[in-house]
Amino acid sequence: MAFLDLLIVFVAVWLALAVLWLLRERRRGAALPDRWAPRTRALEEGGHVIELVRRGEPAQPVRRVPGDLDSDRLGDELAEGMSEAEARAATLNAALHS
Q: Phi and psi for 80 in degrees, rounded to 5?
């Protein structure tokens, strides 16, 4: 009987801690402002587009990568585009906080 009581207490404490952790994460997420972030999206007509996205704002295209490239060239183009998008996002995010 004592084991069952101990198990019930353990489960209650575990649930309480889980709820507190979820509330803390929600508050932390609400406190952070929306930020620009790079995203890669495949196009229906082939290829990819690298764009900057932010909640409540239209996506800003950074670079289009054609789909007819070989795998090495495609990887290079995507990496360069993501690097450029990350730099632009950092600039836009810095402007938001100044």
A: -65, -40
Ordered DSSP codes for 52-88: EE-TTS--EEEEEE-TTS-HHHHHHHHHHHHHHHHHH
Provide the whole-model pTM. Answer: 0.64
Residue written as tokens 């900057």?
Answer: 52
| Per-residue pLDDT reduced to its tens digit, 51-86 | 999 988 899 999 999 989 999 999 999 999 999 999
Residues 6 or more apart whose Cβ sits within 8 Å of residue 50 = 38, 39, 40, 41, 61, 62, 63, 64, 65, 78, 81, 82, 84, 85
Q: Quick check: helix, strand or coil at residue 45?
A: coil
Buried b (16+ CB within 10 A) or exposed e, 50-72: bbbbbeeeeeeebbebeeeeeee
Write out pLDDT tens, residues 23-42. 988 887 665 568 899 999 99
What are 85's two structure tokens? 């998008």
